[in-house]
Specification:
With 223 residues, this protein is an alpha+beta fold. It has eight helices and eight strands. Helix 1 runs antiparallel to helix 7. The radius of gyration is 17 Å and the shape is globular.
């Protein structure tokens, strides 16, 4: 039987989650689904390659990777689930199996996949498989979706190398899976950190993302 302290703690966690969810959308109602209009193609330009990463809120993942030289395009979206044509509302329920992800096209002549991986490890809470920062649930799980056997090999080697350093008191919890159907998120999610900078800043700061990355990586954590 749950004691009163456990129940109180559970209610507090629910309340905090609700508050941060409100912050994510500026305290207003969650926008209704809109089909992405501009960032709908994930076919890379000639000579470019594709990478897909999940590190919690895709607004933040997009903001981080847009800073990497050699990254050509970034699209927030959903991958890894069993439901066709997922929407933000359905993915947020945690019942579709999807994760919020960022799909990247990049120029391998300017940035290697290994460099993108090294950047990813330092911009995710790699020890938390149950969500990321203040966002909880499988839809926010940290995940690397490999598009080729070489990408999977590099991801698995990178994960093993971090574990081998014994830097952390537990193993890396990042899932590594084969890429599957990618569904771009609704248009209002794309480039959110640019189109709604104040709301984005409130959300990222309130979620404690950068504070946690600093705890994990010290001066190696940059954003």
């Amino acid at each position: 039987m749950l004691n009163k302290q456990t129940i109180s703690l559970g209610l507090a966690i629910v309340a905090i989650g609700a508050l941060l969810a409100a912050v994510r959308f500026g305290g207003g109602p969650v926008p209704q689904p809109v089909v992405a209009a501009e960032k709908v193609t994930t076919v890379p330009a000639e000579g470019h390659e594709v990478a897909t990463f999940g590190s919690g809120c895709f607004w933040c993942t997009e903001s981080d990777f847009d800073k990497v030289p050699g990254v050509a395009t970034t699209i927030s979206g959903y991958m890894g689930g069993k439901t066709e044509n997922p929407t933000y509302q359905s993915v947020s329920s945690g019942r579709t199996g999807h994760a919020e992800v960022l799909q990247i096209t990049y120029d391998p002549k300017r940035v290697s996949y290994k460099t993108l991986l090294d950047y990813y490890w330092r911009h995710a809470d790699i020890l938390d498989g149950g969500g990321q920062f203040c966002d909880r649930g499988s839809q926010y799980r940290p995940v690397i979706f490999a598009h080729t056997p070489e990408q999977r090999r590099l991801a698995e080697e990178g994960k093993a190398a971090i574990d081998a350093t014994k830097r952390f008191d537990r193993p890396v919890a990042v899932e590594i899976a084969d890429a599957s159907t990618f569904t771009p998120a609704e248009e209002y999610h794309q480039d959110y950190y640019q189109t709604h900078p104040y709301r984005y800043s409130r959300y990222r700061n309130g979620c404690g993302r950068d504070r946690r990355l600093k705890e994990l990586w010290g001066d190696e954590a940059t954003h």
